Amino acid sequence: MNNYFATVARGLEPIAAQELERLGAMDVRPEFTGVHFAGDQALLYRVNLWARTIFRVLVPIKEFYCPSPEMLYKEVQKISWEQYLQPYNTLAVDCTGSNQKLNHTHFTALQVKNAIVDQQRSQSGKRSSIDIENPDLLINVHIHQDRCILSLDSSGTSLHRRGYRPAMGLAPLKETLAAAILDMAEWDASLPFLDPLCGSGTLPIEAGLKALNIAPGLFRQKFGFFSWSDFDEPLWQELLEEAKNSRKLDLKEIISGSDRDYDVLTQARANAERCGIGHKITFTQTDLSQLEAPTDCGILICNPPYGERLGDARELGDLYKMLGDVFKQRFKGWTAFILTGNKELAKKVGLKASRRIPVYNGSLACTLLKYELY
Fold first, then answer.
1. d(Cα 223, Cα 236) in Å, to the nearest integer?
2. Could you tell me which residues come within 8 angstroms of residue 108 by beta carbon, excluding any fewer than 6 positions away?
3. Which helix (H) or strand (E) holds 98?
4. CB count, 10 Å around CB of 40?
5. Hey, CA dihedral for 160, 22, 16, 343, is it positive or negative?
6. Cβ neighbours of residue 192 closer than 8 Å, sequence gap 6 or more
7. Residue 306 confidence (pLDDT)
8. What residues form DSSP beta bridges with 284?
9. I want to staple 131 with a disulfide (CB 3.0 to 4.6 A). Which of 36, 135, 205, 292 is the partner?
10. 87-144: per-residue pLDDT in tens?
11. Where exactly are the transmembrane stretches of this chain (predicted)?
12. What global pTM score does this model have?
């Protein structure tokens, strides 16, 4: 059994913990923006392949007292880096956190890099090159007060970058947050799903992937652990085959997205095609004022602009009022959710929320508002 740490967006720790347990993780312990868990190598690979709500899976290799740059360098040099890295491998160091004397993440990362390559030089006369974009080994350094945790990053790039979405709208929702919102809304494949302001399609696509039991990692070209010295290629291929064979062929209920913008709908369709579900999801060009419920009941989720990034908050009041009117008049029998970061705009909906769920969209404090439409 190895110990792992999954990094997650603020506020999503309980949802990520539940997901890890479903994937077979042991000793699951959420903490601020992360979840500790334990398991074998197969679990490490499986979490990277299947997790929908986490960013990265870190493998801690050392924790130590670290009040200063000098102590950081000294402790990093004590690790036998040849077990993880050869001079012909490339390297990158990522740093989070700080303390009084290690208060610049770039400098902290540089100290760790120097300690590693100095050790390599003294042993072989050669050293690893730095490759920030696509390293063979990505090391995570986390400084908290006078402690440092050094970890290997098994994911490489963040897992929210599924690989299906080169096409994005102006204010895209991260795939991990979209997947978490589906969980918060208690949506499952037996319920029709609609996003009436779908933009580049993140919510309907994540709903489609979940409903068809498609592992989000299937669209990625690479994970960090591919270039590790202990990479078990046969085990990975076995898990990959298992994932490919477990996908479902058909949806139980309609999953749809609509938007008035033809160009973003073109992006949405292209994104859905890239993950092989373009023919499963319905995307329609529809102005909100013309929107009709496709079925008698279902779950509606939308992420309208709220003045922080898209549009001006004062001009968005009419949009929120229309959302409330359309829900009330045409979606009886449905449950609707609106993600918003603006309390004043939320009041314009004119409906009483049955639940208010705190959510962070990046660093922005938002609320997921639930409306029971009778």
1. 11
2. 69, 72, 95, 98, 102, 141, 143
3. strand 91-98
4. 13
5. positive
6. 253, 254, 255, 256, 294, 295, 297, 298, 299
7. 79
8. 258
9. 135
10. 999 999 999 999 999 999 999 999 999 999 999 999 999 999 999 999 999 999 999 9
11. none
12. 0.93
Distance CA 64, CA 6 (A): 20
What span, in angstroms and rounded, lies between the C-alpha atoms of 298 and 189?
A: 10
Q: Is the pLDDT at 309 greater than 60, yes or no?
A: no
The architecture in CATH of the region 175-214+249-372 reads 3-Layer(aba) Sandwich (3.40)
Residue pair 244/275 in contact by the 8 Å Cβ criterion: no
| Residue 2 dihedral angles phi and psi, to the nearest 5° | -115, 155
- What CATH class is the domain 2-153? alpha beta
Q: Which residues pair with 4 in a beta bridge?
A: 37
What pLDDT digit, counting tens, does each position of 1-55 carry? Answer: 999 999 999 999 999 999 999 999 999 999 999 999 999 999 999 999 999 999 9
